[in-house]
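Support request, priority: normal
Reporter: lab tech (M.K.)
Component: structure prediction queue

Hi team, I submitted a job for Protein kinase domain-containing protein from Paramecium sonneborni yesterday, and the status page still shows it as pending. I've pasted the exact input below so you can check whether something in the sequence is tripping the parser. The sequence length should be 448 residues. Please let me know if I need to resubmit or if it's stuck on your end.
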Amino acid sequence: MNQSIGENQQSQPSINYVNVKYSFKCLRRHLFKDKVYHVHALQNMITIGEQFNDPNPKYKLELNLKNTVYWKQEHGQNRAFGIKYKKNVKYFEAASEQLNKFRQAISCLIGFHSLDEHYKLEKVIGQGSFSKVHKVYRLHDDKPFAMKQVSSKQKNDKENMQLLENEIGILNSINNESILKIFEVYRIEEHQYGIIVEFVDGVCLATLIEQLKKHQTKLKEYDIKVMLQAILKALVVIHQEQVIHRDIKPQNIMISLSSFRNIKIIDFGLSIKNQLQYNRCGTPGYMAPEIVNMKKDQQKAWTSLCDIFSLGVVFFKLLSKGISCFQGQTSDQVLANNKKCQIDWTIVQQYNYSKNCISLLKSLLAKDPEERITAYQALQHPFFADLPPVLATDFVGNSMTFRSKCIMNQTIDKQNLDSVTSLNDYTGVQKQQIYITDLKPSRISRRI
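Reply from support: The job had stalled in the queue. We restarted it manually and it finished. Here are the results:
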């Protein structure tokens, strides 16, 4: 239900208009006399008042996914926006250019209505237990996008809503060509959301690795080098935003078949940012030792270096024709070997890769996180000497030292959460992976 507020009492605290994202005038049509209002898009709410910077605006709407903004269009152009007020939708008219800027200012912060007036749904390209992904086309320019349709109504509504808002917030905070770009969020039904993201024209890295394994062939070292450099550059961006992905694996890395330099990191559903507190999780076979061996009910500080270890496992598979460094016939066996972290280096050494290649691999897969290198340090490794150098100035806007380890305080509580079944939503290729949350293989169920 929309949390809009009617006439405000003088006792209500005044609104802080210091950080305004966008403001404009609009027209509210009435039977006898139309009225002009001032609209302000703030950091956490929309205000609509009779005065500029109105201390007690008539309408207020919190910016969260539980609320909805409605749109009216004519000939493909926005003509008015609406909010629910006393069970009715009140519309406010403005110039199309102003409405477009307003829409952009609140995009991904609140649910939009009328998906079918803006996008045409096409085929399903991915499906999971509680989500599916459509290829969609934007009506006014026929541009393709992907729409991930998810439900927040599962066993724990509050937790699922928090995870959904967390993923959307992280995607919305990172603007980089190697990170999946999010555009808008639509509220399809009360507990159904459609997340509009860019359509990635490529395949997931898991598909490529499967082909290597199937045909018992290997990539050229140079091609692997180009791909790895691109992934590491993406991780530098992610980590400088104080984000830990927590699920780096081939299924969550998209590649372009035209150039291995073009990659996309996707699926931030398990990611954390700043001091957000979540239970540990990951995919058996890709989890860093400090995570997979973490004792329950303990407070533990761990870092973005867990993503580096996971990437090391991916690197290992690329070098070994698809063989994992933690093998097993079942998820239990894979998990057990992941915990031991006893890596057989001869699996990759038999293919005569360069010393620098093996050296970097071992640095990424260091069991002790204190001995593991960061993403930026990895980019300075001699392995990449024959590629264009990556400099700190390439990452404009970084507010932290690249060599810092971005420590995140992680509290593990007593709750035994379910495991998760993951799906490569963005390619239509279903690849199920078991996530571990309580690290007890006997307690396995599924959720997306």
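The longest helix spans residues 221-240. The chain has ten helices and 22 strands. Let us know if anything else looks off. Ticket resolved.
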